[in-house]
Design a protein that fits this description.
- By secondary structure, the protein is mainly alpha-helical.
- Helices cover about 60% and strands about 0% of the residues.
- It contains five helices and no strands.
- Helix 3 runs antiparallel to helix 5 and helix 4 packs antiparallel against helix 5.
- The radius of gyration is 16 Å and the shape is globular.
- Keywords: Iron, Iron storage.
- It comes from Heliophilum fasciatum.
Length: about 180
């Protein structure tokens, strides 16, 4: 299995209760495929991508921490770290498929590089959590579309495992949203 972090007891795992215990499949592909590599570039570095999620969640972590919301700051930074792991896996797949994991999206004709303008910065806890919920929903939808488009069983297995994480993140963000809605 790919990720040795998943084999650690929860109290030793850097993301603790914010990570699923299921292991990730081995990073492999059936054959080089530039089209699949291009599709994965959208999961890698577009507006609905792992890179954008990392940046948005880390920014939200800093903002939440700054105003003393330690519990939610811990949540978003842990999820951001999980997204970094996804970014690494997607980047490795892109390389194995014969692509180049630069920070650009496929649907942007490979000329549009990732921009910090994609991040939803926000000014209020509920705004930021709502944006994080929408980011997870968008990622799940995009990954499912790519699972349908890609016929490589190795890639499908990895994407399906990532979807499990994204669904768990969505659940955690929705719980946090409900908690902070009740406090407003």
């Amino acid at each position: 299995m790919y990720n040795t972090l998943n084999n650690m007891p929860e109290h030793h795992h850097p993301m603790g209760k914010y990570v699923l215990p299921e292991p990730y499949p081995e990073i492999n592909v059936s054959a080089k495929n530039p089209f699949y590599a291009g599709l994965l570039l959208d999961d890698y570095a577009s507006q609905k991508s792992e890179l954008n999620a990392i940046n948005q969640y880390f920014y939200h972590h800093l903002r939440f921490k700054d105003v003393g919301l330690q519990d939610i700051a811990e949540l978003v930074v842990a999820i951001s770290i999980t997204e970094m792991h996804h970014l690494e896996m997607i980047g490795e797949l892109i390389l194995k498929l014969g692509g180049d994991p630069r920070f650009r999206g496929f649907q942007n004709n490979n000329n549009q590089y990732y921009s910090g303008e994609y991040v939803y910065y926000g000014n209020h806890v509920l705004e930021m959590l709502s944006a994080d919920i929408e980011a997870e929903k968008g990622a799940i939808q995009q990954y499912r579309r790519h699972v349908d488009q890609i016929q490589d069983p190795f890639i499908k297995a990895i994407l399906n495992r990532i979807i499990m994480d994204e669904e768990y993140h969505l659940k955690l963000f929705m719980e946090a949203y409900r908690k902070y809605s009740a406090k407003s």
